[in-house]
Amino acid sequence: MGGIKTNLNGETNIKNLFACGECANASIHGANRLGGNSLLEIVTLWQNTAIYASNKAKNTNIFLLDDSYINKIKDKIRIILNKENEENFYLLKKDLSNE
Fold first, then answer.
1. Which candidate, 50, 35, 39, places its Cα nearest to that of 2?
2. Could you say which DSSP state residue 87 is in?
3. Beta bridge pairs of residue 4
4. How far lies 67's CA from each of 15, 17, 64, 75, in Å?
5. pLDDT digits (tens, 9 = 90+) for 76-97
C-alpha cells in the first residue's frame, strides 16, 4: 500500500540504497500495510537492515575519505558545538509565552 519497496535486508532496487522502518515496505503484510502494521517492520527488520548495510559498506570503496578531509569536518563540527550561545533560550521562551 505504500513505502519504499525493499527485501528483508532493506535493499531497494537502487544499488547501495537501503530503507527501513516507516518509509519501507518489505511486504511482510502483503497488500495490507496499514499505519499500525508498520510497527512490526520497524521492530523486526531494522536490525537486519542495519547489520546488512553496515557489512556491505565495509566491503565497498564508494566513500573513501582521506584523513585531512575527515579532520576538516571534525574541526567544523567542533566549532559548531563549542559556539557560545548569543541568546538565552529560557528568556526568549518566557518572552514568547507572555505575548
1. 35
2. S
3. 24
4. 26, 25, 10, 12
5. 999 988 887 677 888 888 888 8
